[in-house]
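Example record for the data management plan.
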Amino acid sequence: MATRVLIVEDEIMAQKSLIRVLSQHFPEMVVIGTTNSVKSTVEWLGNPANNPDIIFMDVELADGVCFEIFRQIEVKAKVIMTTAYDSYALKAFEAGSVDYLLKPVEPEYLKRAVSRCQSRGNSVDLDAIMKVLGNATADSKREYKERFIIRINDRIVPLQSSEIAYVYSEEKNNYLVTHDGHKYIIDSSLDIMNDDLNPDEFFRVSRSCIVSMKAIGSITKQAGGRLRITATPEPSFEMTVSRSRVDDFMTWLEK
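Corresponding structural encoding:
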């Protein structure tokens, strides 16, 4: 019997990649729908004709975080989250009948997640997830990296975290820009950098950018609820705070 699958993912390439991996390793799984936002997912699940067995759900969607879906509608299917969240959040997901996959999705871990997901009940305990997430955040006391090593061919450049103005991704490369205007290509992903940088000093304003508080000059409200940041050094791209992060960003600024 076919297993009906819904994919909730706002990146088209990630959607296609997951569909390809599923077809290769789980031919019994049939993708019956794809959505890319909280709103479209709630609408899709609200249709009685749509009845998935498993939902692969990205944490951060076009119009907010996926937890809003659970608040707005009862999710009866089993859920596997695809996420780049750090370890405390992964533990939070395991508090309920939710499993997780770290991006990029690897077949080995996909098989593990599907197997574990199929052995669990259907209900999603959002309260348990949020409680563990909150406790882990409060109890987590960790040290963050103060020194980063940049490799440029046969040259090594050590940098203090205090020298970093912002980190961003563009096309397939990741860049680090210092307060004095130097720009370096780095090997680390933004997810790793986000884990390594002190959240009191740095904030991930969007999927593609992490900024230091010291680099922020001014902030302008934009249509759609986003914020535009004027930073120093001036970035080569438009630095904006995604709508889902605005409240957290303003709280961070006021600390």
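Summary line stored alongside the record: The radius of gyration is 20 Å.
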